[in-house]
Design goal:
With 545 residues, the chain is an alpha+beta fold. It has 17 helices and 12 strands. The strands form 4 sheets. It has a 4-stranded antiparallel beta sheet with strand order 4-5-6-7, with no helix packed on it.
Length: 545
Amino acid sequence: MKKTQSKKTVEKTAKNYGNYLVSLIPDVKALWNGDKFQGSIGFTPETEYVDYWTLRKRSLDLFRKNIYAKGIIRRLLWNEIHTGLVATPTPIASEIWRDVDDMQSAEKAVTAAGKIASAFDLYASTPAVFDWNKKRTFGEFQELVRFESLICGDGIIISRIDEKTNLPRWQWVNGNHIRTPLNVSLTNGNFIKHGVEFNKYGKKVAFHIKSEINGQSVYERIPTRANHSGRLIAWMVYGSETLLDDVRGEPFLADTLYMLKDIDRYRDAETRAAVINAVLAFVRKRGKNEIARGRPSMGGGRLKGGQNGPVGGIGATVEDDEDIGGIDMFKPGMWYDAPEGGSIESFNTQRPNTNFGTFEDVIISALAWSHGLPPEILKLKFGNNYSASRQADNEFRVYLGHRNQKNANDFCKNIYSQWLRCAAINGDLHLDGYVQALAAGEWKTCAAWEKCAWNGLNRPAVDRLKEVTASQKALDSLLTTYDIEARRMSGLGIAQVIQTQKRERDLMKMAGLTPHEDEDNNGLPAYTREETENEESESESQNEE
């Protein structure tokens, strides 16, 4: 009969085997996994499921009810979008007109840019032509897209061609309506995750939108591109940073929902405490043999009349045995008629908490820092120190510069490019070689025509005179370039500034006006274009002789 091993023997054998396995790994204690000591990081799940639906609902509820969430979102919108990013067409002359000299090609580029800018401004400012719902201009559409993507995490922009104008009209659908259909049949190995359809290679090919029609749920499949022409039809816009493999976007405030909720509760509690502290002037404690009238422990704010008359304060008219309701029924100077004690005591004067303001500043500063925003900008609270205010403004300019470029890449450029293509094909715009380049797939020529700069709110300098003087001295000392200083002051490159000024000067000349910098000491034009052209022609003639 086989002898059974004791429990102690089994444990010893297992321990020895474990030590043997560990001995096979050289210097196992040197393995680095992020822990400072065993268990310091805690449990890390291999995969994490994101509840996009709950995040969106909580984020929207927080924006509606929480003053901090509403303030953060509004500050971002009013600075990022303002009245909308403005398109400044900048076609690349050297790529479009290769056989023309630089001066002539630059002149052509300036003329073409002016025509494109005027046509796009007309299109973008006409809601009936631009917006699918015929309500918003391009600037208002930008605000809607950014606002709802911040709150809902994401959404899609859809291009729908208008049969009358043959131009695209734009529709925005926020993330709440992008759902996976209950019954859907897919082919070619396609699959759906969170309402987004992918092909077998993992590329987005369509979005599924849920809407309610006559009380019934209806799903619409929106492809990302047209089957034959390859025209861009729909794409997703995210409200915050996403990883490459993320299917949907998270709301901007997803990581701070609980913190904003609790600090708002804290503020409400302190406000309530301040009201109660002001309403209740004092507490009178009765002796043991006196009849108790009030019941301060019931309801936290209910008073009751007694045998000897009403209870209350100055001007009270409460009848015997009549209950007074909650705090909204209180009048200044009221007091509790407590059952025992026979003395008068002042109400607690330590509320509201005097440290609440400091605590609030710390929390808001942490929120601002986590999202890359200067606390001074977020709180609109500035000191008298010029250097500190300027640094806060510089940090916010860095954020806005990055965010404006991101917004332009996310949706503005696509809208502009799709409009330009339709306008050129329809014959509304005559652009040298552009339609032919589209048909032939010459991407360089197409990209050269579609090149466009996007400019947002140009925040005024803290002290503009100091800023301009410093820029001028840096230029005189050869420490910077005109392009760098132009972008710092206006957000435009030096080429854009010169081209725009040239158009403005031509316009002023047609109106019989002269820029101040072109006037002499008597306020008269120092020179005219005709005089300059005559001098140039005379100089050329002399050189030829």
